[in-house]
Write a structure and sequence with these properties.
The structure is a single chain. By secondary structure, this protein is α+β, with helices and mostly antiparallel strands. It contains four helices and five strands. Strand 3 and strand 4 form a beta hairpin.
Length: 118
């Protein structure tokens, strides 16, 4: 996949997330990267960023991949320790307006979610 396409898709995803900047801050979101991610044998453009929440204290990452065929997203939350990835959860067939609630369901506890939603 061309780097310009990967960057374009990642920038679009990030702009959709920035609609609610306070949640990005609450997640401790930073270090945004555009990558190519393989999910179910298909390579897709994706945005990856680090997070730090009470539930995911260290090594947390969120990866949002675009399913080009359906114009939907795949949202993954993982914890990284050393060179190993430990999945926290994956949700498929997500639309842009569902990104925040989906990410929250993967990286926040019910108690924490209530505290950060203003």
């Amino acid at each position: 996949m061309e780097k310009s396409y990967l960057k374009e898709v990642a920038d679009t995803i990030l702009s959709q997330l920035k609609v609610v900047k306070t949640e990005l801050w609450a997640w401790g979101a930073k270090d945004y990267y555009y990558i190519e991610r393989e999910v179910d044998g298909t390579k897709s453009p994706a945005l990856m960023f680090t997070i730090r929440t009470p539930k995911v204290r260290r090594g947390g990452r969120v990866i949002i991949s675009l399913n080009d065929g359906s114009d939907e997203y795949i949202v993954e939350a993982i914890r990284v320790s050393g060179n190993k990835e430990f999945p926290l959860g994956m949700v498929k067939e997500i639309h842009a307006e569902e990104l925040h609630s989906t990410i929250n369901s993967l990286i926040e506890d019910e108690e924490t979610k209530t505290l950060i939603c203003f």
